[in-house]
C-alpha cells in the first residue's frame, strides 16, 4: 500500500512540474500562446524589450528549436520595420497589435537579407518564429497572440 501511495505521489509531482513548466518557461524565456483556426500553439519566447536586445534580435544564431521564438516589444504601436541582416535562420515575422491581434505575417524571410520588411498596419510587437511555422499552424491576420505584454 505504501509503495502505491509513493508511486502515485511521484506521478502527481511530475505532472505538476510539467504543468508549471508549460505555463512558465523559466529563466530566459516566457510562454506565448498563438490561437489560430487550428487551435492553440505554445512557444517559448525570448523577450527583446530593450533597444540593445531589439537591435541584435536573432542575429548570428545558426539555429533555433522549433518551439521557440523571439518576441520584440516596441512599447508603443506604430509602423515597424525589420530586416534579416546577420540573421542565418530563415524566419516568419508576425506583426502584432497592442491588443494581441495579428496584423500581418511576413513568411519565409530570407536569411542575411538587408531588404526592409514592414508591418502592413501599426504594430506593437513582432514575433519571430522559424520559417514555415506560420503556414503549419495556419497563422493569419486576426488571430490572437496571448502574452503578458498585450492588453486584454
Quaternary structure state of the chains depicted: single chain
CATH superfamily: Protein of unknown function DUF192
H/E order of the elements? HEEHEEEEEEHE
Number of domains: 1
CATH topology: Jelly Rolls
- CATH top level? Mainly Beta
Give the N-to-C terminal Cα separation. Answer: 49 Å
The CATH architecture classification is: Sandwich
- Output the radius of gyration: 18 Å
Strand content: 35-45%
Question: So how many helices?
Answer: 3
Instruction: Give the uncertain stretches in residue-range form.
Output: 6-27
Largest sheet: 7 strands, mixed
Can you tell me the overall shape?
Answer: globular
Question: Could you give a short description of this structure?
Answer:
The protein has 152 residues and is of the alpha+beta class.
Describe the protein's architecture and organization.
This protein is α+β, with helices and mostly antiparallel strands. It has a single domain (26-146), classed as Sandwich (Jelly Rolls), CATH 2.60.120. It is built from 3 helices and 9 strands. The protein has helices at residues 2-23, 51-56, 133-136; strands spanning 30-36, 39-48, 68-78, 81-82, 91-96, 102-109, 117-118, 123-130, 144-146. The strands form 2 sheets. The chain has a 7-stranded mixed beta sheet. A hairpin with a 5-residue loop joins strand 5 and strand 6. The longest helix is centred in the N-terminal third of the chain and has 22 residues, at 2-23. The relative contact order is 0.20. Residues 6-27 have low confidence and may be disordered.
